[in-house]
């Protein structure tokens, strides 16, 4: 009899559609773990699991990160899946070494994050958040001419990382407002970036020319603290900095200093190193900083898409197919050997 695939997850999926898709699968045993249970019970279930659906960083609790220690204690794991596009809660290098594949849900929340990015740009440029605060704080009527902002039309937006979300931001900015769209992405050619609606530049030129700098790159060893004092000083004093990607790509303390010293006009921040973010965080003290609690990608439509994407990929993985959003194809050879050893059949070959 073929081995039944055991898939574990903590608490709940971001949408019930995932369980509706997975429970009817006769070859998948779906197990819910709970943080409130003793660690030993959770480790016991994980130790015999073949797949682990990892929660997003905001909800995920230690010690359940997809790291080398977890892989050592769970020798049967063949695959880990992130909740969304970001997979910084999973140690891909450790997975490569262990012959474990990683999948993410890239593109599933592109519309939600791109629209949120545009919302932050409009909110900052038109001083919407500031106007709202002024009207709520005082019985004295807000002086509307003192709240004059700027149109987005014919401005310049600089996109750092033009993947699924960055491309959609380029489409919206260029199509809706006729903005000049610049992009910095060292992994793409000028022609590839042009096909996505932007002009390729180096980072310095992007910072110097842009009225809005918006981040859409993953957090990695290469991008950690990518933006600090020197980068903010290169930006226009009238420019706004937007991050709906991941906390840690910008240095939070240096961003606060840059705003305090008026190196830039303000910022729109959806992501922080510590989430949930404490109310006394320095960036929350500025009227020209608009913050949201890492909910750029949280819409009903996006959550359903993320969950259905993850469930569909698990069905593919345990059916021996190549999942469409494979993060580490370099692990496929070793993964294939382990898959055959565990399940008795060889998975499909990677497409050339």
TrEMBL record:
GO terms for molecular function: NAD binding; oxidoreductase activity, acting on the CH-OH group of donors, NAD or NADP as acceptor. InterPro entries: D-2-hydroxyacid_DH (IPR050857), D-isomer_2_OHA_DH_cat_dom (IPR006139), D-isomer_DH_CS (IPR029753), D-isomer_DH_CS1 (IPR029752), D-isomer_DH_NAD-bd (IPR006140), NAD(P)-bd_dom_sf (IPR036291). Pfam families: 2-Hacid_dh, 2-Hacid_dh_C. Belongs to the D-isomer specific 2-hydroxyacid dehydrogenase family. One of its GO terms (biological process) is amino acid biosynthetic process. It comes from the Bacteria. The keyword Signal does not apply. Residues 118-296 form the D-isomer specific 2-hydroxyacid dehydrogenase NAD-binding domain. This is Uncharacterized protein. It comes from Pseudorhodoplanes sinuspersici. Residues 22-328 form the D-isomer specific 2-hydroxyacid dehydrogenase catalytic domain. Keywords: Amino-acid biosynthesis, NAD, Oxidoreductase.
